[in-house]
Amino acid sequence: MFPDNDACAKYLEAVRWPGGFVCPACGIKGEPYRFKTRTAVVLRCRGCKKNASLTAGTIIQSSHTPLATWFWGAYLMTTQTPGQSALQFQRQLGLTRYETAFQILHKLRAGMVRPERDSIGGENPVEIDECYVGGATRGEGRGTHHKTTVVGAVEVRTRKDAEDRAAKWKEAHEGGIPTKKLVYAGRLRLKVVSGKGADNLTSFIKENVAAGSTIRTDGWQGYNDLPEMGYSHDSLVLGGDPDKAESHLPMIHLVFSNLKTWILGTHHGRIAPHHLQAYLNEYVFRFNRRFYPMTAFNSVLGLAARALPPTYAQLYSGEWVHPAT
Ligand SMILES: [Zn+2]
Q1: How far is CA 211 from CA 141, 234, 236, 289, in A?
Q2: How far, in Å, from the CA of 44 to the mean position of ligand 1?
Q3: In this predicted model, what pLDDT tens digit does every residue of 215-273 receive, in sequence order?
Q4: Which DSSP state fits 246?
């Protein structure tokens, strides 16, 4: 979609003025003057002759880096591919200075580190579990004393076409329902907590899961208060073996497994505990927008969250919803 700086500029214009250019200074509507220089990100009003910047209010504002470089960075940052180091980014785009690459990624990342505040669950059951992230630093030996506890919650959603799929599957395979293929992970929440204590777990749940939701957990006693708190608690009986826990909480376990792979692979496991929440937020940001790449892309660039032109919406039909305003 964005072969060159011109295409990027056209996109910025379309997002900012979906119904055509309107001068921010005098309010006149109509085709503006366009400059032919390579780096033009400015339109000039034919009425009042004032310039309007395409990048005003975005993170690209007052940057001398070409638009296409920013767009590449935003693309790499918001897709599910493992994030890039600044050095890789610099090499891939042929940037002269390492600092430029570093600053671009840094600014884009800042757009991802924002807490997600709406409640998850509701009609969708929620799987909740804890995991340990990080590990003993060199020379400290084994044990979990320097690992950080992370609690996670993920929605289990049923595909809209689940019944059709089940019916099709039954035709092909006698007797049986492909349950795993009928559900998928919905929204995710991850939080660093100081331990597995009931207080930590229940306050996380209150903050993130809608009252009345069904919550699936293992048999840990820290979750015993859930029914009192107004949740429908689907707990695995105490003493359940690991295989049972796996089939009871498949989605949150998969999330934890992928999270650890990302931390080890892209960040070489070197995340200080006091920075971990920021990385969890980045992970959650990408995960929750994996069906809406255009929304995530706009969001990290700091483009106003408004409805996109239909041509882009059509590209992502199916799971498409309008960005929240
Ligand atoms: Zn004007």
Answers
A1: 42, 14, 20, 24
A2: 8
A3: 999 988 899 999 999 999 999 875 667 777 778 899 999 999 999 988 887 777 777 78
A4: H
Q: 155 in helix, strand or coil?
A: strand
Let me know: does 233 contact 127? Beta carbons within 8 Å. no
The Cα 59–Cα 81 span in angstroms is 22
What is the whole-number distance in angstroms between the Cα of residue 39 and the centre of ligand 1? 22
Asked if 159 and 183 count as a contact pair (C-beta separation under 8 A), the reply is: yes
**pLDDT tens digits along 112-159:** 767 778 899 999 999 999 999 876 555 545 444 568 999 999 999 988
Q: Rounded CA gap, 188 and 80, in Å?
A: 15
Alpha carbon 159 to its chain centroid, in Å, reads: 20
Give the Cα separation of 176 and 282 in Å (integer): 39
DSSP H or E run through 193 = strand 183-193
Predicted structure pTM score = 0.77
Report how far ligand 1's centroid is from the alpha carbon of 258 (Å): 51
Count of residues for the chain?
325
Q: How far is the CA of 36 from the centre of ligand 1 (A)?
A: 20
Separation of CA 22 and ligand 1 centre (Å): 8
The 8-class DSSP code of residue 120 comes to B
